[in-house]
């Protein structure tokens, strides 16, 4: 007998990436050679020293038992040490750090800890769907979408004047998914001070802090202040560890406490051997300078970025090379869904329709540069035929 979804679940639109995955599956089952620029999953392998470390750690029987839902102390200490070296921020590993099953679950669970039904959550638009859907909507809260516009560098328009002072929580993300936009410390400081003044919880998604180009160095929100702020990070993009599912939350101890309380009820933490590999990865940072394995990542993605930008510009698209993330975001002058369907159906190239990130994303598409240079060049040749 079929059962009806809960009302809150019915409010959530189909997850865009799941729909794209199904379209790709069908095409490949028909023998189509698909070049996939859809999901942001690095194709570059996890650095071999990290792979070797997890192999070593999985051999230790002590790493086969349940971990702490908040993360092993050693892992929390490694995150704190990373923040000290990279951002000059001091953290108490006991009270100001929590280890996550990837930052995505933390971004959703922080709302479960603090947002009540009917309360407002400020969400950028376009943005990672988890903020408005996985967090606000699944808490029976009201997502209030704040436009990110290209003529404002994809910053909140006239910030912070347009923001609702009665909101409970504000989500922010720079370097930004999907636009690739970056933010200055002065801009972040203004929003942080507004949050302190209005007692709005600042949720800062900093998953792409280490994936930056052209001498841009991403800051941490905690360099500005901890009070009322919680920041989320991930090893997924920095070290090509998406499948390992390990991230972290840092910040105001009272907010970390709420997140930990939720996690004790819904998960049993990241596997110990994965945490050990995460410790090893974070320890590659000896100073604020990025370690060689991260620099190697950035060099590859920058080369790909430049090839894709050049090719798209030659087709007539206005594309700005992003200073952060591995995404290109550009206008296609019409329906993003129609453009995406055309590219997949006619030439087997997958791009993500911008409307999947919010109404302000309509007319744009996102391309993740998670294909080799050769595949990028091949995709550009195909796209030129149907532009």
Topology, pairings included?
Blueprint: H1 7-10, H2 16-29, E1 35-36, H3 48-58, H4 73-87, E2 97-100, H5 103-114, E3 120-125, H6 130-136, E4 142-147, E5 169-173, H7 185-198, E6 201-205, E7 229-234, E8 247-251, H8 253-266, H9 272-282, H10 292-314, E9 327-331, H11 336-347, E10 349-350, E11 352-353, E12 364-368, H12 373-386
Parallel strand pairs: 1-10, 3-4, 3-5, 5-6, 6-7
Antiparallel strand pairs: 2-8, 7-8, 9-12, 11-12
CATH class of the largest domain: Alpha Beta
String of helices and strands: HHEHHEHEHEEHEEEHHHEHEEEH
Q: Can you identify the CATH superfamily of the largest domain?
A: Type I PLP-dependent aspartate aminotransferase-like (Major domain)
Global outline: globular
Helix content: 25-40%
Q: What would you say this structure looks like, in words?
A:
The protein folds into two domains: 136 residues, Aspartate Aminotransferase, domain 1 (Alpha-Beta Complex); 234 residues, Type I PLP-dependent aspartate aminotransferase-like (Major domain) (Aspartate Aminotransferase, domain 2). Helix 10 runs parallel beside helix 12. The protein is globular, with a radius of gyration of 21 Å. It is of the alpha/beta class. The chain has twelve helices and twelve strands.
Provide a compact summary of the structure:
The protein is α/β, with parallel strands linked by helices and 387 residues long. It contains 12 helices and 12 strands. Strands 2-8-7-6-5-3-4 form a 7-stranded mixed β-sheet, sandwiched between helices. The chain has a 3-stranded antiparallel β-sheet with strand order 9-12-11.
